[in-house]
From TrEMBL, chain A:
<dbReference type="InterPro" id="IPR003439">
    <property type="entry name" value="ABC_transporter-like_ATP-bd"/>
</dbReference>
<keyword id="KW-0067">ATP-binding</keyword>
<feature type="domain" description="ABC transporter">
    <location>
        <begin position="6"/>
        <end position="234"/>
    </location>
</feature>
<dbReference type="Pfam" id="PF00005">
    <property type="entry name" value="ABC_tran"/>
</dbReference>
<dbReference type="GO" id="GO:0016887">
    <property type="term" value="F:ATP hydrolysis activity"/>
</dbReference>
<dbReference type="InterPro" id="IPR027417">
    <property type="entry name" value="P-loop_NTPase"/>
</dbReference>
<protein>
    <submittedName>
        <fullName>ABC transporter ATP-binding protein</fullName>
    </submittedName>
</protein>
<dbReference type="GO" id="GO:0005524">
    <property type="term" value="F:ATP binding"/>
</dbReference>
<keyword id="KW-0813">Transport</keyword>
Automatic annotation (TrEMBL), chain B:
<feature type="transmembrane region" description="Helical">
    <location>
        <begin position="115"/>
        <end position="141"/>
    </location>
</feature>
<feature type="transmembrane region" description="Helical">
    <location>
        <begin position="61"/>
        <end position="83"/>
    </location>
</feature>
<dbReference type="GO" id="GO:0140359">
    <property type="term" value="F:ABC-type transporter activity"/>
</dbReference>
<feature type="transmembrane region" description="Helical">
    <location>
        <begin position="249"/>
        <end position="270"/>
    </location>
</feature>
<feature type="transmembrane region" description="Helical">
    <location>
        <begin position="175"/>
        <end position="195"/>
    </location>
</feature>
<protein>
    <submittedName>
        <fullName>ABC transporter permease</fullName>
    </submittedName>
</protein>
<feature type="transmembrane region" description="Helical">
    <location>
        <begin position="20"/>
        <end position="41"/>
    </location>
</feature>
<keyword id="KW-1133">Transmembrane helix</keyword>
<keyword id="KW-0812">Transmembrane</keyword>
Length: 307, 278
């Protein structure tokens, strides 16, 4: 029995010629909000479908809440919001929740009580009796969220939950994710919206071309955050440039400009002193917090074109 | 039970969809026309007198009743193919099934639940229209054909064959391909049935065999012929005069075959759907 919510080894999915997921090996701990980041077509949705048993892996193995992938009973403890939430248009949000309550084999009174509470949480009580065909995109997404949480899952998969939502809708999703984390639910969030991930996730994995290329914890408020320093000076000789290495990794060095990666801003005065003592004229020195977006672009590399 | 949840949701869906409403309007319009036709037919027959007239009258009324059921049979075929035709393929394409299949429900339960739900709807439709035809015959001519329950059972089995085919196709094919295939097979069996009838009328063995083979491939027409045979009074049935039973009567083995055919179609549906990426 493993304590991981999700554990996979070399999961792979091939559709005919197309390799959708090449090698997915990752571990998601119980109770964490895990961000799965990558450009469109990176294989995020396919990975998630393999974990849920909607798609059979071509190779590899894994466990979900300790049970092998595809185990039916485990799915009672798992919630899921698909990427493009599609629905039977003739039914209403309330009826759809009832139907899923029956699929979960919840006792009638509990199903009813939970459905009403969730409809309230996602602010759909007014529209709950109307057919879904008349819902706006945001209302549908909120219906999908209520559906995902109906089983009071231990693990929730959200595939691009805020795409197409307005700022209020995004706020709602963010609040729901936080509320789930506070309850101890594990959340697996597929996204390419980095701000959202930065605001909610404990840990992230970057996926590219169907493999995890980087995995790391997101630091809480200021600790261990990376900075990027930009230095512009004329008359910097090779010696001076080489000496900069001891302050941090040199990212870029061309002409008058050098860019460095720093662990903290406190190195700036020393850098300034070093440059001036070497006889160069310092014109500019600054340091900026490296955002997830910068990291994303760095990880995905220059060869990546907008998907 | 999760299976019953799927059945129930399918029934609720059918009740709201326009396809069923359209089929009901078609059926209602047909029954009105049929009642008017029957009324005038009976009035004309009442004018004739004599010993032969009673026999003619009985023959014509029986034939007209079976003709009415022949039309009902066609409406039933339409509904049995069209109602379930996109339930799997359509919901796979749009992704509606993703949230359903992510629940602790077996893929087989989804397929069989949808199958039973649609079958119940088609049976309800068949029962309503066929009873309508018999009621019209009873109230205008005061006559009812024999063996009604057995004949209805044959038609119900025919409906089950078609619903199973439509569901099995939906698990593997696109909606359009599935519809074309289902109607194509039905038409194939229908033509095969006529070849068999005509062949046996002129005593040609080869054509009779063609009929048997088509019935084995697609047992719908055999079920209709069995029903039509049962609905004729024995003396008429033996004369082999009616346009609905000139040929050999399908045997009881054909009924067993139809049941096996349904089981095989469902097994194929479950197997196809189980491996489908959703
Ligand atoms: N059913 C499928 N058949 C063929 N190719 C697919 C299928 N689903 C996804 N793909 C391909 O696999 C790759 C990964 O897709 P997806 O998992 O949807 O990526 P993401 O969710 O990261 O945008 C894409 O190139 C996509 O075109
Ligand atoms: Mg995706």
């Amino acid at each position: 029995m493993t304590n991981a919510a999700i554990e996979t080894r070399s999961l792979r999915k091939r559709y005919g010629e197309k390799l959708a997921v090449e090698d997915l090996s990752l571990t998601v701990r119980r109770g964490e909000v895990f961000g799965f980041l990558g450009p469109n077509g990176a294989g995020k949705t396919t990975s998630l479908k393999m974990l849920l048993g909607l798609v059979e892996p071509t190779g590899g193995a894994g466990t979900l809440l300790g049970a092998p992938l595809g185990d039916r009973a485990t799915r009672a403890k798992v919630g899921f919001l698909p990427e493009h939430f599609r629905f039977p248009e003739w039914t209403s949000a309330r009826e759809l929740l009832r139907f899923h309550g029956r699929l979960l084999e919840l006792p009638d009174t509990i199903a009813r009580e939970r459905a009403e509470r969730l409809l309230g949480t996602v602010d759909l009580l007014d529209a709950a009796h109307r057919p879904l065909r008349g819902y706006s995109k945001g209302m549908l997404q909120r219906t999908g969220l209520a559906l995902a949480l109906l089983g009071e899952p231990e693990l929730v998969f959200l595939d691009e939950p805020t795409s197409g939502l307005d700022p209020l809708g995004r706020r709602l999703v963010r609040d729901l994710i936080r509320a789930e984390r506070d309850k101890g639910t594990t959340v697996f969030l597929n996204s390419h919206l980095l701000g959202e991930v930065e605001a909610t996730c404990d840990r992230v994995a970057f996926v590219k071309g169907g493999r995890v290329v980087r995995e790391r914890a997101l630091a809480a408020e200021g600790e261990g955050v990376e900075f990027e320093a930009v230095l512009r000076a004329s008359g910097l000789d090779a010696d001076a440039r080489a000496g900069l290495e001891r302050f941090g990794r040199v990212l870029h060095d061309e002409g008058d400009e050098v860019r460095l990666s720093l662990a903290s801003e406190s190195a700036l005065p020393e850098i300034a002193r070093w440059v001036v003592e070497r006889g160069a004229s310092l014109r500019h020195l600054s340091a900026d917090h490296v955002s997830l977006e910068d990291e994303f672009l760095e990880v995905m590399g220059a060869d990546h074109r907008p998907g | 039970m999760r299976f019953l949840a799927i059945v129930r949701f399918t029934l609720e869906e059918a009740a709201r969809r326009r396809v069923l409403l359209a089929m009901l309007l078609c059926g209602g319009a047909f029954l009105v026309l049929y009642a008017v036709g029957f009324h005038f037919l009976v009035r004309d027959l009442a004018g004739e007198k004599g010993a032969m007239a009673t026999l003619t009258r009985q023959f014509v009324v029986n034939m007209f009743t079976i003709a009415g059921l022949f039309a009902v049979n066609f409406l039933m075929v339409m509904s049995a193919v069209l109602l379930p035709v996109d339930t799997l393929s359509g919901e796979i394409t749009t992704g509606v099934l993703q949230t359903v299949a992510a629940r602790p429900v077996a893929r087989a339960e989804i397929v069989l639940g949808k199958w039973l739900g649609h079958l119940l709807v088609v049976w309800g439709y068949l029962l309503a229209l066929a009873s309508g035809v018999l009621a019209i015959a009873w109230f205008t001519a005061h006559r009812a054909p024999p063996h009604v329950p057995a004949a209805f059972a044959c038609l119900a089995l025919e409906a089950a064959v078609l619903v199973s085919l439509s569901i099995a196709g939906g698990a593997r094919l696109s909606t359009v391909t599935n519809g074309v295939l289902a109607f194509g097979l039905f038409g194939f069996a229908f033509l095969g049935g006529w070849v068999e009838q005509i062949g046996s009328f002129v005593n040609n063995d080869a054509t009779r065999n063609i009929g048997t083979v088509t019935s084995l491939i697609m047992p719908t027409d055999a079920m209709w012929h069995l029903a039509a045979h049962l609905l004729q009074p024995p003396f008429l049935a033996q004369m082999r005069m009616s346009p609905f039973s000139m040929g050999p009567v399908p045997s009881a083995a054909m009924v067993v075959w139809a049941v096996l055919w349904i089981v095989a179609a469902l097994a194929s549906a479950v197997r196809g759907f189980r491996r489908r990426p959703l």
